[in-house]
Design goal:
InterPro entries: DmmA-like_N (IPR054582), FAD-bd_FR_type (IPR017927), FNR_nucleotide-bd (IPR039261), MRET (IPR050415), Riboflavin_synthase-like_b-brl (IPR017938). This is Oxidoreductase. Pfam families: DmmA-like_N. By secondary structure, the chain is α/β, with parallel strands linked by helices. It folds into two domains: 58 residues, no CATH class; 110 residues, Nucleotide-binding domain of ferredoxin-NADP reductase (FNR) module (Rossmann fold), CATH 3.40.50.80. Helices cover 21% and strands 24% of the residues. The protein has five helices and eight strands, in the order ββαββαβαβαβαβ. It has a five-stranded parallel beta sheet with strand order 6-5-4-7-8, with helices on both faces. The longest helix is centred in the last third of the chain and has 13 residues.
């Protein structure tokens, strides 16, 4: 905030809409908040530069500089944790890790159990890898890299979930579809499955 006051409160999984203006082009993109909901002194987002960007990510990477002012919405949450869940199982792929960073921060002082499985091609393409391996609860973080033979065994993971577990998935559509398909095969209750696009 430009006045130094705390920003509006948010919960893990929230996003903001960033408004951008580049001459005659206007962009309005949603980005997950990855900072801790316990600290509203600032919001943090991560923006992957897409090769086929229609403008928003390219604009943020190439035009925005430190000190520029951007207009954002108040946080909105379409991917919130379910309060009644006994355990939260997070499945992330690629830049889909971002909403889980705020979920993990929200749960840091909670008694509710959680586990993260993060899929990437290789360790080098694993966004926030250093933060994840140094997380205070790093034993709950599992990194899967297809190039090193540590690919996620989704069927086994979902077959072993405990009653009361809610499954949250964010990543490429292929990952979302794999989770949907395997969950259907295992007759996992649809209400316990949550997807962020």
């Amino acid at each position: 905030a430009t006045d130094g006051k705390p920003l509006p409160a948010f919960t893990g999984g929230s996003h903001v809409i960033v408004q951008m203006s580049d001459g005659d082009n206007q962009y309005s993109n949603a980005y997950s908040l990855l900072s801790s909901p316990h600290d509203t002194s600032c919001y943090q987002i991560a923006v992957r530069l897409k090769e086929n960007s229609r403008g928003g990510s390219r604009f943020l990477h190439q035009q925005v500089k430190v000190g520029n002012r951007l207009t954002i919405s108040t946080p909105n949450n379409l991917f919130a944790l379910i309060p009644s869940a006994r355990k939260h199982l997070f499945i992330a792929g690629g830049i889909g890790i971002t909403p889980f960073l705020s979920h993990m921060a929200e749960l840091q002082h909670s008694d509710v159990d959680w586990q993260l499985h993060y899929c990437s091609r290789n360790p080098e393409s694993c966004a926030f890898r250093d933060e994840l391996v140094q997380h205070p609860q790093a034993e709950k973080v599992h990194l899967h890299h297809s190039s090193t033979g540590t690919r996620l065994e989704l069927a086994r993971l979902l077959a072993d979930i405990e009653p009361g577990t809610h499954v949250y998935t964010c990543g490429p559509e292929a990952l979302n579809e794999a989770v949907r398909s395997e969950a259907a095969r295992l007759a996992i209750v649809a209400d316990t499955l949550h997807f962020e696009q």
